[in-house]
Amino acid sequence: FLLQLTRLTSLDLSLNAWVDDPLLIGIAGSLSRIVHLTLEKTDVTDKGVAALSSLRLLQHLDLSRNSIRGDDAALAAIKSLPALRSLLMPYCEVDLRVLTHLPPTLERLKLSRALYIGDEALAFYASLLQEGWERGAPCSLRELDLGSFG
């Protein structure tokens, strides 16, 4: 029935074990007006996230506490979201590669309590970001949460 609610702009499916990749793929194909999508602690993985690139109006995406590792297809989908302003991924299994796959519109990124990243990896990704910013790569990030990262 969810996929028939084509006028939805906000959808919170948090804490529902029945929310999985096939459903997320259906949402991405049917609910093009979604602006706010919350999927905290569902059964969504990288495969479902990879389908989100069709949600061109999506501004807020909460993927907290899911089995998301940040594979190339999922990160490419996130980067391709032209309106995304807020991305929440605490307690996911992503690494700092996500920092190199941010859409230029992103203002808020929460990665607290994500997979452990050592000091060397942190320094490496920080240097990549710095190089990108020095080359004029657009960045709207205003809030970055790496609390208890690692």
From TrEMBL:
SUPFAM superfamilies: RNI-like
InterPro entries: Leu-rich_rpt (IPR001611), LRR_dom_sf (IPR032675)
Protein name in UniProt: Uncharacterized protein
